[in-house]
Design brief:
about 250 residues, mainly alpha
């Protein structure tokens, strides 16, 4: 284990060095030992002299949410392509572009970058600026009127960020962003429904008992009348002077 920070950074970025070497070979257009060595040298110099800030990843990949993220992205990609084609073929009106500011829930560089890249890859929208300290994205929309307004742009971008967070973020990051887990959301909804049912069980039960009593009284009016006379007699006997207690 090396204690030198620069050596440790170079060892951790061998993937970037190999990628830069591949790009160097593609730029020269010929695969040779000299181009490979030159690409490796360029890659080492770039990663050492111009190092990128490290990106900490404390989340976990959820396969189901990841599949939903990419599936929904391809659906939005096809829908946006049709909309942009319609705007391009409509010669009677000029599109009204706009720049919309969207405040993201999470300020992580990783999630902000993924959200910005997916938004840029969708036709009709382009991220023109991103503030990593504030988590603010500025999106240029081709036609704000056909899109549905600035509020819809913000709502769709926040929905995209939510899908990104549910695919990669940890449980703590989801809680900080105000996004409950789907299992916890279902359990909360069930508990609320159970509480509402328990609260309404008392009045509902009393109402059913009263309805049954009324139905029995309508079916047998003579029994109901006898019961009422018996109750009146018991009340009169209880209220007689002989049964009253002497007051001090």
């Amino acid at each position: 284990m090396s204690l030198h920070p620069r050596r440790r950074r170079v060892r951790l970025q061998w993937g970037s060095i190999a990628l830069l070497a591949l790009v160097w070979i593609l730029l020269w257009g010929e695969v040779s030992v000299a181009n490979l060595l030159g690409g490796l040298v360029v890659g080492v110099l770039v990663t050492v002299l111009l190092p990128l800030p490290p990106i900490d990843f404390h989340g976990r990949v959820r396969p189901g949410a990841l599949l939903y993220l990419f599936g929904r992205f391809f659906v939005d990609l096809a829908r946006a392509s049709v909309q942009v084609a319609g705007i391009a073929l409509n010669f009677r009106r000029d599109p009204r572009g706009a720049v919309v500011a969207v405040q993201l829930r999470n300020h992580s560089d990783l999630y902000l970058t993924i959200t910005a890249e997916l938004s840029t890859l969708t036709p009709g929208s382009l991220v023109v600026e991103a503030h990593r300290l504030t988590g603010m994205l500025y999106l240029h929309v081709l036609d704000i009127d056909s899109y549905g307004g600035a509020d819809k742009v913000r709502r769709d971008t926040l929905d995209l960020e939510e899908r990104v967070l549910r695919a990669f973020a940890s449980d703590e990051e989801l809680e900080e962003a105000g996004l409950a887990l789907r299992g916890e959301r279902r359990r909360t909804a069930r508990a609320a429904a159970a509480g509402a049912g328990a609260a309404g069980a008392g009045p509902a039960g009393a109402t059913q008992a009263e309805r049954a009593h009324d139905a029995a009284r309508l079916e047998h009016p003579e029994r109901a009348q006898d019961a009422m006379q018996s109750n009146d007699a018991e009340s009169a006997e209880h209220d007689s002077p002989d049964n009253r207690e002497e007051q001090p």
